[in-house]
Every structure is written in structure tokens, then in C-alpha cells.
UniProtKB/TrEMBL annotation:
GO terms for molecular function: hydrolase activity. InterPro entries: Cell_Wall_Dynamics_Protein, Lysozyme-like_dom_sf. Keywords: Hydrolase. The keyword Hydrolase applies. It comes from Desulfolutivibrio sulfodismutans. Transmembrane segments: none annotated. This is Glycoside hydrolase family 19 protein. The keyword Magnesium does not apply. It comes from the Bacteria.
Amino acid sequence: MDLLPVVDALAPQALPVVRQAFATSWPVFERWRMTSFLVLAHFLAHAAHETRLFRALTENLRYSAKRLTEVWEKRFPTLEAARPYAWDPSDPDPEDVALANLAYGSRMGNEENGTDDDDGWRYRGQGIFHLTGRGAYRQIGQMVGVDIEADPSLVLSEHLLIPCACAFWTWKGMTPYAESDDLRSTTRLINGGDNGLADRAIRLAQAKRLLGV
């Protein structure tokens, strides 16, 4: 099965590395037992949403102060606390590293002194499903047989982009819900809530049509 034409139709402006990865992806989906067209439709719908139609494989850390209090309520309980880390469009060098270290440091498997050793930044969201935290990189690395914990950038490579995404999908136990066409449950397994559910539904309908589901 050649999934590249499906990806091209779903996301005409997909990054070259994404197109290259999907061009040889079928054996990967076979390995992870994700060959059901309904499961693939759900996979592609979530992947398209998470990456802004396969144009963004790294987490965007440019938030307004208000948005920071919404995304990381415990880290930024007030607007005053958030403002030093908020994105200023007039600043050509936003404090992405500082924000990532504060938001993700000392949790999700990141080292205890995450704000000092840049674990939050090193293990920020990357890949199709924006793998986040040292613990997740370690887990997915073990599943695919590559030490991506040692080199997080490997998640973005042509040869590991799809394997890491399939490993994440399997790790979260998403296939049974996709087989039941349960979009809400698969969404919650990805981000813990209903974030982007309406857009995911649009992408799912498109993917289903393209795959003939």
C-alpha cells in the first residue's frame, strides 16, 4: 500500500521529510499491525492535526501570557508569572529554551534539575505526535530499538519519523478505539482532553474518503 498519495491529498504542503517517510512507510505499519484502513484514517487524522497538516514537527513554544496560563496552569498561575516567558512578536529571539525548561523540567522523566540542564528543551515535543519528556523518549526508543533518548533529534529523521509515531500509537493503546471509530477516546489518549476535536473530525472524514473507508 502506497500511502504517499493519501498524504499528498490530505496535506499538499507537507514537509519533504514527511513525504519521504510515508513513501516507504507501509512495512512499518505492517510491523505495528496498523494496516486496517479505519485505523490508518484515525492515525492520519490525528497526525495531520498535531503537525498542522504535516508542516510542523516540533512543538511551537510561542504562546501569549494568557495562553501560557491556560496550557500550563500550575506553572503559570497568574499573568504576571507568565509574562517573562510569553512570546513577544517584536523579539527576534524568543525565550523558547527557558519556557521549555520551566514547563517540562523535573517531570515526565526529565532530570530533577531540569531548569538547569535543559532537559525540558531537549525533550520538548517533537515528531508526528510531539513526543515530550525524557521518559517518553526512553520508552519509544526501547520500542523502536534506537536510543533516541541520547539523541532526541532522531525522532525527526526520515527513517524514524513513522516508526516512532507508530510506537507512540501502540504505547498509548489507541488501535482498539480507532477500530471502534471512537475519535473522542483516541483524542484523549493523545492529549488528555478534547483539544482540537472539531478539526480532528474534519481530518478524519477526509482520510476516510481518501482511503475508501
